[in-house]
Design a protein that fits this description.
There is one protein chain. The chain has a single domain (about 5-165), classed as P-loop containing nucleotide triphosphate hydrolases (Rossmann fold, 3-Layer(aba) Sandwich), CATH 3.40.50. The chain has eight helices and five strands, in the order βαβαααβαβααβα. It has helices at about 15-25, 30-40, 45-50, 55-65, 85-95, 105-110, 125-145, 155-165, and strands at about 5, 30, 70-75, 95-100, 145-150. A five-stranded parallel beta sheet has the order 2-3-1-4-5, with helices on both faces. Helix 1 (about 15-25) packs across helix 8 (about 155-165) and helix 2 packs across helix 4. The protein is globular. About 35% of the residues are buried. Bound molecules: shikimate-3-phosphate. Shikimate-3-phosphate binds near residues 14, 77 and 118.
């Protein structure tokens, strides 16, 4: 089986679904944000604040270049698809799956989680989600081999749906 890569917006459940899929399919779970935090010994918020977004994006690219393992499931930060170089690397790493949520779903999930996310703030959350989705939706769709709608579904329903797609 090829490696699996999850892409999608913040709040789309990439980490939860990725971890669960790893358990179910016996794949090693990797999370790019967690890996970057471990390597730099800084939180994502600190990296954005002290070094800036461009530096963070470069760390993401460097990390993708170093991945040379099989049997992994990779959960990626929501902005991973922004750079063309990253999109090409993701496709090489494995089968890319887009976890697609509506603005409303993402809003409900992110409302209590803005603190850890440097690109979001509570006051203008709804507009920020809308802007990011407008900017990124096409990039997620064109990078992904297939898209799974997450609205109204539990992580285990999403996992089952992905397993079903992979069997087809
Ligand atoms: C980002 C998403 C975050 C993290 C960083 C930037 C983005 O990851 O990489 O805060 O640009 O959408 P999650 O999607 O796991 O929240």
């Amino acid at each position: 089986m090829r490696n699996l890569v999850l892409v999608g917006m913040m709040g789309s459940g990439k980490s939860t679904v990725g971890y669960g899929l790893g358990e179910k399919l016996n794949l090693t779970y990797f999370d790019t944000d967690a890996k970057i935090e471990a390597i730099t010994k800084m939180s994502i918020s600190e990296i954005f604040k002290e070094k800036g977004e461009t530096y963070f994006r470069q760390l993401e690219t460097n990390l993708l270049k170093e991945i040379n393992q099989d049997q992994i499931i990779l959960s990626t930060g929501g902005g991973m698809v922004l750079l063309e170089e990253n999109r090409i690397l993701l496709k090489k790493i494995g089968t890319v799956i887009y976890l697609k949520g509506s603005e409303e779903t993402l809003y409900q999930r992110l409302i209590s989680q803005t603190e850890k996310r440097p690109l979001l703030d509570l006051k203008s959350l709804s507009n920020q989600i809308s802007d990011l989705l407008n900017q990124r939706n096409r990039l997620y769709e064109t990078t992904a081999d297939f898209t799974v709608e997450i609205n109204g579904k539990t992580p285990s329903e999403i996992i089952d749906e992905i397993v079903g797609f992979l069997k087809e």
